[in-house]
Amino acid sequence: MGYELAMKILVLSLVLVAVAGSIPPSKMLRRVPAAIYVFGDSTMDVGNSNYLPGKNVPRADHPYYGIDMPGSGKPNGRFSNGYNTADFFAQSMGFMSSPPPYLSLAPSSNNLVQTAFATGVSYASSGAGILDSTNAGKSIPLSRQVQYFSATCSKMVASKGSGAVSALLSRSIFLIGIGGNDLAAFANAEPAHSDVAAFYDTLISNYSATITELYAMGARRFAVINVGFAGCLPVARALDAAGACSDTRNELAAGFNGALRSLLAGLVPRLQGLAYSLADSYGIMAAIFADPLASGFTDVASACCGSGRLGAAGCLPTSAVCADHDRNYFWDGIHPSQRAASVRTRAFYDGPAQYTTPINFKQLVVASGTQ
């Protein structure tokens, strides 16, 4: 197949995905009781970081975050103008939005347990990394997110019994999206080329430990999102005099993604009953950026809300905001806009086969018995 024909097919697929995104979730799926447990960084966070102490914690608690959020238009902890990736995945399953943040529920054991059974819980935190050292003291690292889930499970068992919890978790979806902050910290440190392989090994070892630990607690269905086109984020482009993407950062992300893909495939024969869908954030971003207009975007280089070069200096109450929030891929210097998150998630859920492996998110949901 020629390159031009392949691109035309890809563009048509993305357009169809965007159209599908306008269909109400209630018309797509019929949900039966199950839950979603969310782990990750600011692309998944729905407010946990708002509860962390310290002035240096990255928070989406000010304008213009949440400006397009249905029903409020106010900041809500999401690094977006509205819903984020976790929200759109939950909506595809039939929920209203992502489950609420753990730290909003933790003060009341009864509230935590009831929510954990009804919808699930989000443990994701802005700035979080696979490594504890990434943004230490400013986020909830992945290891602690798993500890919080373990504490949740203990309360669930005490309230409902181990049988009920095991049955629920086996049908639930564990959504994970993390790694970008680790790669950014590593790239910013300007490491020697020889350090990259060891860095990958450390990340993958910790990722493997996370999935294995969640599996031991009853998790069986994992929806995993790899690291995106890291060198083409506005914050990365702003480092280049011409505003070009960083090939080094993209290559670093691609290498990690390859290692993550191998890890997940290798875990299946070791962990009986484990199933997963790996979504290619890197691939879909590369495709959209190659022909933005085909997906309805007019700007894939700068932030809609921001200041400084390419709007990369941050989305603040004093920032300039683009006129049409749906036409910029990025809301701020790092995070996708609400529409970009929708297009991505629809592709991962039931879109072109090249964006998920070995099955898509919808097939994973069906396999878990939640449809």
From TrEMBL:
Q: Which molecular function terms from Gene Ontology are attached?
A: hydrolase activity, acting on ester bonds
Gene Ontology biological process terms, A to Z: lipid catabolic process
InterPro entries, from UniProt? GDSL, GDSL_Est/Lipase, SGNH_hydro_sf, SGNH_plant_lipase-like
UniProt keyword terms in alphabetical order: Hydrolase, Lipid degradation, Lipid metabolism, Signal
- Which parts pass through the membrane? none
Q: Residues of the signal sequence?
A: 1-22
Coiled-coil stretches are none
Q: Which family does it belong to?
A: Belongs to the 'GDSL' lipolytic enzyme family.
List the protein's name.
Answer: GDSL esterase/lipase
- Specify the species: Setaria italica
